[in-house]
Amino acid sequence: MIFLTFVLIILTFTAYYLNQRSLVSPAILFSGGLTIAAAIAWINESAWNLQLDFRTFLVITLGTIEFIIVSYITNFIFDVISRHFSYPKNKNSLSISNYVGKRFKIVLLIQVIIVLISIIIIRRATGISDLMTAINYVNYVQNGFIKGQINLPSYFSVLLIFNPAVGLTAGYVFLEEIIINKRFTYIPFFNLIFGLATPILTGARGDSIVFIISLAVLGYFIANEKSSWS
Question: What is the rounded CA–CA span in Å between residue 126 and residue 104?
Fold first, then answer.
């Protein structure tokens, strides 16, 4: 695993320099994500009893190289085409309308109701009254760490999708207000928090990490649009 991590680090730096040193280029996000995953696997190699097959190593490394090459070619073609067009730069941000804030208040109420319903469903499905214990039990069963059976209703997964989706939408508004207008908006912030916390109800901490990374990418876009991007 250490060799795979080392190779992916090199490929990530290569992708960084080949794609105009953009931290959010597709090649960086792809190779960087795999690098983080490989580093975590390396750290837990003994605990997880991991044995990297050579064929798996080739699939990961060659696939990453292919993705970087295709991204570079696509970026080169786009740059050639864009030189023939001029885009007006607009550094002025549109202010958020009042009705948007009112709608986020309504959506926040829906998010709270979804969390409460989800807690009730988890407790009933597991038969465990303590919420944290019930969440851990759901996580262990779903990942095969322990044997057990949980009958969650089919609509449960749909409920859990709603809150993160709303959270990312509100997160964009919140970040734009912070970065562009230097103003803290409470309602979108709470929408964001509920979107971040909801995946934890099933012990899916990875989804919350993806949520944070997505917000970081959105913030990067907004900050660069303010300073230089067209």
Answer: 33
